[in-house]
Every structure is written in structure tokens, then in C-alpha cells.
Amino acid sequence: MIKNEELEAILQTIDLRDDAPTDEPMRQYYFIKQARELVSAERAKLGRPLTADGETFGCQMNAKDSEKLIGILENIGFEMIDDESADLVFYNTCTVRDNANQRVYGRLGFVNQMKKKNPHKKIALCGCMMQEPSVIEKIQKSYKFVDLIFGTHNIYKFAELIVSMYNSNEMIIDIWEDTNKIVEDLPAERKYSFKSGVNIMYGCNNFCSYCIVPYVRGRERSRNPRDIIQEIEKLVTEGVVEVMLLGQNVNSYGKTLEEPMSFAQLLQEVEKIEGLQRIRFMTSHPKDLSDDLIQVMKHSRKICRHLHLPLQAGSTRILEAMNRRYTKEQYLALAHKIRREIPDIALTTDIIVGFPGETAADVDETIEVVREVQYDNAFTFLYSKRTGTPAATMPNPTGEDEIKANFDRLLKVVQETARSRVGRLTGQVQSALVEECNEHDSTLVSGRLSNNTIVHFPGDSSLIGKIVNVRLVESHGFYYMGEQVPDNIV
Ligand code: SAH
Ligand code: SF4
Ligand code: F3S
After folding, report:
1. What is the pTM of this model?
2. 3-class SS at 468?
3. What per-residue confidence (pLDDT) applies to 353?
């Protein structure tokens, strides 16, 4: 991330009569300057500001990418609005399950109607779905009104792509198969003033047999620890108190660095940043979760008491077919060790039902694990076949009705255990980071506990971004109602 003054000083030195530089990020600074001129010319022509809207599908990684794209749009002069009637709309897509793809095609049909009424309107598509050649073919054939398509590896080029888009009447397509590049120091916007996601690595090398992410996000690469620390230090000076370190498998952080560093070591460095109050991270692969990490979490004052530890399946046979590289017993031993070392931790998980060959007996084993681990929350997904992954060619003799029945059985147990867990803090005083005013009742604000549970309590917008002490008065399923307690009483 670059400071505004620094960027402005660099832009002053750029002469657009020169050819664009080839080195990054200088090349992008050149195109930021050119895009600004373009946007201001359009603005003069229309007699009003140009508006833009970003629609994000998918995980926190995509949300973070969207903040970077919005940062560039704002920097070159677009006014961001939350409405697809904008002059430029980008869709940052997800392809982890087929329903994510279907939602995007639905939006495209809708936005095409709007484009017919506003010929200036530009439509851009980016994100994971665009890394699939079959998707690009479909868009070229049936969604010809799309102006720009780019992928997950070249979002840093957005200013350059916008310039190409405004200078062309053809659909611009720029997709890279993979990259080993990490371009730093571009402008970025933040959705919240007090918390922020921070990429620590990109891509994934695990190739779980059902998962498309390694194909659309490329090989695993870790960011340099100095860049990560500097980014967080800058965020803290801007008022951020909580960071979420992001990666598909944060536990393998650092393996690709010239001077290897473990995730546990990185956390210790982040902990030292003065003014930073809370640290979260996503996602942990059980196979790489080290004892060092557990010890660092145990002794940390800042790392939140929450661990998302995807199980995916409870049957060792299915785990093996999924290429998860742990057994049911290894997972259970790990969960017990974590609970023993950090008793107040909340554990959450992801589970897939309906993987090829999974039977009712396999799902019984998943249910057993859920009962034994006692998750605070579990996200359950129906298996979705992703073309190009090894699982897509595995036969599945289990019928749809049986899969649905297995899913419902699991969901019932997940909900029962979660409900019994969440109330366990009733009566305690805990710190909560206030995130927003309550949508339904304006006398309440909503905060998040260290263990990720939400608490609603009386307060006003002046509390947003502050960490306050709250007594958890009543438990309501997945959230608490509470009351603020002055600091000196705790
Ligand atoms: N890197 C993370 C998760 C990324 S995808 C991890 O390893 O945990 C988020 C979740 O989507 C996964 O945990 C998995 O439960 C689910 N998922 C991934 N591919 C899927 C598929 N083909 N069908 C259904 N669910 C899937
Ligand atoms: Fe997908 Fe597995 Fe990588 Fe997670 S670790 S992104 S589930 S391949
Ligand atoms: Fe979806 Fe891509 Fe994330 S496929 S889950 S947005 S990495």
C-alpha cells in the first residue's frame, strides 16, 4: 500500500508523452495518470461525475481484491455507489461451487437491460470464474455486451485495463494462467475504517480433489514479512485495531520465501505492532497446524480466541479420496490438543456432504466428529462438481435423495451442538469490537467478541471501531444481548 502523498509526488514526475514504463508498479502509476485524464474528459463530456459499483462474490480473498480494485477506481476519479446503475460495474466472481457461477450469469442478464438504456455503461468481469476457459467461451458467445474480462493474477493492472477498455470498442480479455509476481504499493480502499483483511499469501498448492481454487488462484506464494508488517503498521496509523491475515492455507506461510519463516513466527512479529489490538486469520489447514502455532496463540494477548479448522469429512476413507492428508483420528487428536491448550477457543469448520462415493455410514462418522469436537459453528456445503478437478471424474453411486437426507441429518446435529455451545458465556464480561449500528433497532450497536460471536447492546455510532467491555446478559442462539460495562468495573 502506498501513501497518497507519495503516489501524488510520483505522478507529478510522469510525462504521458513518454512511453509507458515496463517495470511495475511504475507502469501502473503511468496508467493511473492516463486513466485520470480519461475519466475527467468523460466527466466533462457528460457534465456529471462518473460512477462505479463493485459487486463481490466469494470469500474474503475476493473481498480484499475488490478493495484494491475500488482503491484504483476512486484514485482515478470514479465516485463509488452501491448500485448496478453505475457507469462502470465490476463483478468479482467466485467459482468454488456452481451456485456461485449461476448467480453471476443472473446478474449479467439484469445489468444488460440497464446497459441498453445507458450506452456509456461499462461492464467488467474478474475473479476466479474468469480463470476457467469454458467460462470465457460462454461469455464471448452469449454475453457480448461485456467490455472487460480479467483474472485473479492481474488485478493490479486495473488502471491499464480501464485505459484499454475506454480506447476500444471490442471486448478486452486479459487472463494469465499463473504468476509468480506480487506487485506491492498500489492504492487500496477499505470497507471498514477499524478492521482490515491483509493478504499474507496467494494461491494454493494443496489440490484437495474436489476444489478448483488451486487452478484459479495459481501456485502458493507468500508475501514478504516486511511488506506485511509495514502494511499493518500503516493500517494502525489510520485507525485499524483488528486485522485478519488472509491465505488459503495460512499454516504453510513462508515456505516459498527466500528466508523461510513460519506462520507462528509471522504472528509473533505482528503481535509486536503497537496499537494493533486484535489479530485473526483464515484459513488453517489441519495437516499443517503446528504445535508452535498453538503455543503462540495460547500466550498471545492479541490473537482472537477463534480457529476455523475445516474438517470437510469425518470418514478417513473419504478424507483420503479428498486428498486432505489427515485421518479422522489425527483431526480429532488435533482438535483435542487445541481445546486442552486454549480452553476458551471457539472452533468452527467447513463440511462437504455428497463427495463421490460418500455413504450414510461415512456421514455418520462426520456426525461423530461434530459431536466430539463441539463446533461453535459449521458451514455445511453440498458437494458441487468442478470440471477439471480429480473428483469430477469419480463415479458417485449415492443417489441425490440419500445425499439430501445425509445433509439434513448432519445439519441438525451441527445446529444442536452450536446452540448448546454459544450460550456458554452468558453472564460473563467480554471485550467486543463495535462494528455497526443495529439494522433493526437504532438504539443498539453490534460488536464482535474475540471468539467471533456477535453481541447486540445499547449504544450509538460513536462506539463504532472501539473495543468495549460488555456483559453478556442473554443468549439467543447465535448471538447475545448484552450491556456495556465501564472499563473500571472489570
Ligand atoms: N482454503 C480453505 C477453503 C477454501 S473454499 C480451506 O482449505 O479450508 C471454502 C470451502 O468451500 C471449503 O472449505 C470447502 O468446504 C468448500 N468447497 C470447496 N470446494 C467445494 C466443492 N467442489 N463443493 C462443495 N464445497 C466446496
Ligand atoms: Fe481448496 Fe484445499 Fe486449497 Fe482449501 S486447501 S483452497 S480446500 S485445495
Ligand atoms: Fe471463490 Fe475464489 Fe474465494 S473460487 S471461495 S472467490 S478463492
Report:
1. 0.95
2. strand
3. 98
